[in-house]
Design goal:
With 374 residues, the chain is mainly alpha-helical. 56% of the residues lie in helices and 6% in strands. The longest helix has 38 residues. It comes from Bombyx mori.
Length: 374
Amino acid sequence: MASSVQNSRISSPGYCACCRTCNMWCWKGFKWLPVSFIVSIITWSYYAYVIQLCIFTIQSTVQQWIYLVLYHILLIMFVWSYWKTIFAEIEPIPEKYKLPEAELEKMLSAESEDSQRTILENFAKDLPIVTRTMSGSIRYCNRCVLVKPDRAHHCSICARCVLKMDHHCPWVNNCVCFHNYKFFMLFLGYALLYCLFVMATCLPYFIRLWKMYEEYKHAHCDLILESGAYTKICVDMINGDFGTATSSGRYHIIFAFFVSLMFAISLGSLFGYHCYLVVNNRTTLEAFRAPMFRGGADKNGFSIGAFKNFKEVFGNSPNLWLVPVFTSFGDGMVYPTPREEEESESLLSSERWDRWGDRARPFDERESSSFDEL
């Protein structure tokens, strides 16, 4: 452990500041490519659906308005949730978890890992942490030089420790964690509804175009047109019963159907998996490796019941569950545990709260209601 701490203190090999700056901006630009791809897909789908389908293809004014109103509601909620997931402020780990310079020097000069473990234990004795490493020692990040709060992990892409880290998502260019997990769930849910709506409303026109194409091939219109001849039957098939939509416009509708179908399949599986994680109060990292407590690994160590787990992420007010505003409980550092775990770890014991003094409990909601109200 000492060597790893020392390595974190050694500066990187020096090279020109211009190269460092260039590499930094190139890396930042590269990380935005997946987001740019998603934005371009959304922009194109807006043109395909609103312009080509609703305006040029659909004949009924009532149907046009119904489709446009529903589409824009889903689009606004989808884009709003996506924006909040990307640009949510990921707050740093509080200073009280960071090792002071004096303690760090003791760590560097310690002769054994047992000595280092003792230093960390003494430093963390008043910190509200219940999880441990596989060896039973305090979870410590030698790159950020801090004791990790429960469920926090170091993100190598963001180069920092993140509270309740789920995973780093390249499609949002951000860590999915305590501060934006609700937004991420709403983003997946609204994106899935958006794709299903576009797919369902494009399906009748996709079927109609497919039937027209089959008739077109059956009448050998492709061979007739290749010879330079035109027949009324073939011209009528080319024009089709698609309003004022051009031939290219029809293919925009077809592509919109297939693209929405493809994304709906992938989003459906991803959204379903994260619903499972929410109900069981796990992160993606914890699903692959159960959190370690003093009594050993426990995959359900933070699960307090399906509905309470849900409200831990989405909050106490049903009116705000579907709105991308932050309503999650807690401060991202302290989490309630099942009754057995509370008794063994003394997470909510009076002695533990006495050490917090007059500070508001971590799960107080806007200084008015505690997590016990769940």
